[in-house]
């Protein structure tokens, strides 16, 4: 029952105690009670009717709201001390109450009907089911963005020196250079002895030989220069 319902019930009870003559004339104040109703160990559904009975006669009723029903049970001095039995719907409640003028609104009276052993009990968890079949392959996802450039790697070790290459072929001889200038003429040789009976012909032969020697010496000199 909501706090507002409880406050309203208590306010009604206070008014009835303060103004008994105005409210009921010469009648006694009714028995007020609020009951928590359970059926088969569980709270009764909202809207379930709870009835009160004295000596086999229905004397009051209330409707369950949030598991609680409020009942106003009239009576007089002859009703005081009598047993109040309850029904939740059409089932008899195991608990009873005693009629008294004004009744009580707090603490709540709990009444139960049916088999409390039928209250739902949490069972042990069941075994895990078999694994389902493998699903079909999903579509290929979009390519991710390019990652940041990595740091430069360390410099590699210096490589070994390569082997010496084979000796190249000898080049062709160059062209002969130009001839050098003619050297100066050598000094004239000493005059030969006079021939006896040679006459002038021997002198001419000697002169020719000297000229040939000079030319040969000049040619040898020029050849040495050109080499």
Number of helices: 3
Overall average pLDDT = 77
Total beta strand runs: 9
Q: Assign the CATH topology of the domain at 3-115.
A: Immunoglobulin-like
Secondary-structure element series: HHEEEEEEEEEH
Query: What's the end-to-end separation, in Å?
Result: 139 Å
What fraction of the residues are assigned to beta strands by DSSP? 15-25%
Based on the coordinates given, report the CATH architecture of the domain at 3-115.
Sandwich
Unreliable spans are 18-26
Radius of gyration: 74 Å
Task: Summarize, please.
The protein has three helices and nine strands; from the N terminus they run ααβββββββββα.
Descriptive report:
- The protein has 227 residues and is of the alpha+beta class.
- Among the domains are: 113 residues, Carboxypeptidase-like, regulatory domain (Immunoglobulin-like, Sandwich); 29 residues.
- 22% of the residues lie in helices and 22% in strands.
- It has three helices and nine strands.
- The strands form two sheets. Strands 1, 2, 5, 8 and 9 form a five-stranded mixed sheet that branches. It has a four-stranded antiparallel sheet with strand order 4-3-6-7, with no helix packed on it.
- Strand 1 and strand 2 form a beta hairpin.
- The longest helix is centred in the last third of the chain and has 28 residues.
- The protein is rod-shaped, with a radius of gyration of 74 Å.
Q: Secondary-structure map with pairings?
A:
Elements: H1 3-18, H2 20-24, E1 31-39, E2 42-43, E3 49-54, E4 57-63, E5 68-73, E6 83-88, E7 91-98, E8 102-103, E9 109-113, H3 199-226
Parallel strand pairs: 1-8, 1-9
Antiparallel strand pairs: 1-2, 1-5, 3-4, 3-6, 6-7
